[in-house]
Design a protein that fits this description.
With 194 residues, the chain is of the alpha/beta class. The chain is 27% helix and 37% strand. The two termini are 12 Å apart. It binds glutamine (GLN). The site of glutamine (GLN) has 11 residues, from α5.
Length: 194
Amino acid sequence: MKVGVLALQGDVREHISALNECGVEALPVRTALEIVTIDALVLPGGESTTIAKLARSFDLFDLISGRIKDGLPTYGSCAGMILLANELVDGAKGQETFGGLDVKVRRNAFGRQVDSFETDLDVSGVGSVHAVFIRAPWVETTHGDVEVLAAVDISGVSHPVAVRQKHILATSFHPELTGDNRIHRYFVTEICSN
Ligand code: GLN
């Protein structure tokens, strides 16, 4: 199995190391030829507007969006979650997403006070994870068969920060930055291998 990490912008290397630790071949992908040959895709953390714009200008946008919708196992962290959302709140003007995940995502959701923070989270199917949030989104609403794997409570309101829908996994936080590869392992064993 070959997992491609979309390498237009963002923390690509960290995802590749985490995937390698899980025993799979992982490579940076940035051309159509590379994207058609991968068996799974990771959309890294970074800046969702930049990644979407670069995908458009390199003529990769529809290919990526189409492959995700056709069932390519895909994991997105932070900016990657935003790029997977079918609907955005507080996106930049005209911001596009690849879509595929039937959720509404709020970009930069946690606001100034808690712009970036770390917390321990219970992630269903994974266990307790130390989660790093950096100008992170949250999931505002879920539809259909989207499963909430973890949520953060803010002022008594629970906001999903890890979700799965069939072949798509998304987290608001960055497991690639903590050296704990269990989220990547979940992706590889529970999503890519099915
Ligand atoms: N705020 C960024 C965005 O909108 C995401 C931040 C991140 O990936 N750490 O794309």
